[in-house]
Amino acid sequence: MLLENFQMRTIDTGEVKIRLHYGGEGPPLLLLHGHPQTHMMWHRIAPLLAEEFTVVMPDLRGYGDSSKPETTSDHATYSKRAMARDQIAVMKALGFEQFAVAGHDRGARCAYRLALDFPEAVTRLAVLDIIPTGKHSGGPVRISLQSSGDGSLWRSPTTCRRE
């Protein structure tokens, strides 16, 4: 059975209901899936991470068993900012004011927005398969890209801080 040592829960954020699995012990780690996956994309790595972290794996709004609200003409309902607010509400409901976050694809964009909008909450950031782009409010953010030696790049997780 997948994720057998994890608990399933649905959290009402006030805007949407977010379905998630969580488990493990240690510092909190939020894992955000990409498109078109759900939180189940993490099923192979989550048990290993749960040996050292409390792993939280939600379905983003619009995915899996989370709410699928009506969209608006400006698409704000499905913006990365709205999804980031969801994750802050989820983590607070689980008792976590600060946490590390890793995201893949769409989840990485959400994680990046979360770190920009809520820097006091994000202790570490890892984004997979994206390079952070675009403008943001709140001043400059230092970005450090590092090479893995195979041609891929990643953003240093310790540099997501407002200067």
Task: Lay out the secondary structure.
Layout: E1 7-12, E2 17-24, E3 28-32, H1 46-49, E4 54-58, H2 80-93, E5 99-104, H3 106-117, E6 122-128, E7 145-147, E8 153-155
Parallel strand pairs: 3-4, 3-5, 5-6
Antiparallel strand pairs: 1-2, 2-4, 7-8
Helix pairs in contact: 2-3
What this model shows, in words?
It is globular, with a radius of gyration of 15 Å. By secondary structure, it is of the alpha/beta class. The protein is 18% helix and 26% strand. Helix 2 crosses helix 3. A hairpin with a 5-residue loop joins strand 7 and strand 8.
Keywords for this structure?
alpha/beta; 6-stranded mixed β-sheet; two-stranded antiparallel ribbon; 3 helices; 8 strands
Give a short synopsis of this structure:
The protein has 163 residues and is of the alpha/beta class. The chain has helices spanning 46-49, 80-93, 106-117; strands spanning 7-12, 17-24, 28-32, 54-58, 99-104, 122-128, 145-147, 153-155.
Helix and strand pattern: EEEHEHEHEEE
Number of strands: 8
Gross geometry: globular
In whole angstroms, the N-to-C terminal distance is: 45 Å
- Please work out how many helical segments DSSP would assign: 3
Low-confidence parts lasting 5 or more residues at pLDDT below 50? 137-147, 151-163
Strand content: 25-35%
Strand order of the largest sheet: 1-2-4-3-5-6
* Rg for CA atoms: 15 Å
Report the mean per-residue pLDDT as an integer: 86
Helix share bin: 10-25%
**Assembly form of the protein:** single chain
